[in-house]
Amino acid sequence: MIHSYLSCCVVLEASALECLAQEVFPLLCLFLLRGLVFDTMYGNLLKVDSHGNILLCAHGFTFLKGSEIQTYYPNRFIQRDNTDRFYILNTLFNLAETYLYACLVDFFSSCTRYINKLKGYRHGDLFMSFRSMFQDVRDAMDYVHDTGSLKEKTLKNLEKYVIKDPRLPLLLSRMKEVAKVFLATNSDYSYTEAIMTYLFDFPHGPKPGTPKRPWRSFFDLVVVDTRKPLFFAEGTVLRQVDTTTGKLRIGTYTGDLQHGTIYSGGSSDIVCELLGVKGKDILYVGDHIFGDILKSKKKQGWKTYLVVPELAKELQVWSEKNYLFEELKTLDVFLADLYKDLDSGSTELPDISAIQNRIKKLTHCMDMGYGKMGSLLRCGSRQTLFASQLMRYADLYASSCLNLLYYPFSYLFRAPPVLMPHESTMDLLPLDFPVSEKSVANHVLRLTDAKRKIVEQDTDSNDED
């Protein structure tokens, strides 16, 4: 739906808009994912790791090969902190926006009326840069949200766009029995009221046989119009909402928490004050990696729970393809084994081309299981930028907040202990050899004959391919 609105809002020549509407593009679900980076200079969609190394590059719907990527990025690396040029598309809303970038670039690249240039397209005396195209789409995105047209369309067909789950009232009722529960949303009161009323519209209460309850009874505090991420910094004026008219009451609210009252604006500091808690006492659940998770963690030190809806598919594909990852790990050990008897004085170079080709083939096979752009979280054995942000700022993550139903609220969530690279080699050292006399890197575990045969068979079959 949002893609259709964006397409209509982007300013294009009438004939170009008509051609664009008639063009057949790949399905969104097969091609794109979150976490990509749009290069406003060259119009490329990039999949990068946490350091800015390019894992994948697409121009429209055309995937570029290694030599083509180096034409644009000789070092296969980007300065992702250069936000004037590189725009990170991390949110669920960005999916439609990302898809439209790909559609526009693909359309103009293949249109005979336009001449392809390095930084845009020329048609007679007119030049359209990728940066101006990007800004048009961004402006259209802001227009769709600011005018409220997207919300109006959503409210007209809630059954189509909003997923109801009877487990939600049950989870919140259980949480409210042992803790304080609050809702902080950027949406206004009228939209929040409509969505929440629909989500809690069941013939019974949290459990069958219990009386039906209004949605506000499940929360100790409700705050709308929070304007996150500003909410986690200085915030805005806290005001009360007149639930009869939906309008804000005059003046700044400075009193204690009033149950059943809807508030507007405020800040994370005010929420802590009203609830009588410290930042570390809060587990904050959100689906926006920047506006919800990163800012609440960095500014307030809140415990964070990131909702990643794509995780359901990621887990399904991983269960089917994880044997490929195990083979990648085996190849890494085999590579180390080839170098075990060499040092800085060695002139002999082992031939690792077959192993490198096999690694590329395995990585590609894994990625294709997720879609044309691969996994949201990895590319072979390397984590994506989105995955690194998730690991850094989210204390917990899951496909839904409803996963909390299946844990006692006293459960102690702990990250599994992870060895650093130098620590993971210690158990590989011979017991009769001092660490200080030889580099740890030269003491890697030898492959068993069985593993060696498996790898040799795989590399042989790859040569035949």
From TrEMBL:
Signal peptide (residue range): none
Protein name: 5'-nucleotidase, cytosolic II, like 1
Protein family (similarity comment): Belongs to the 5'(3')-deoxyribonucleotidase family.
Cofactor note: Binds 1 Mg(2+) ion per subunit.
Organism: Scleropages formosus
Gene Ontology MF: a single term: metal ion binding
Requisite cofactors: Mg(2+)
Pfam families the UniProt entry points to: 5_nucleotid
Keyword Metal-binding included in the entry's annotation: yes
Binding site for Mg(2+): 287
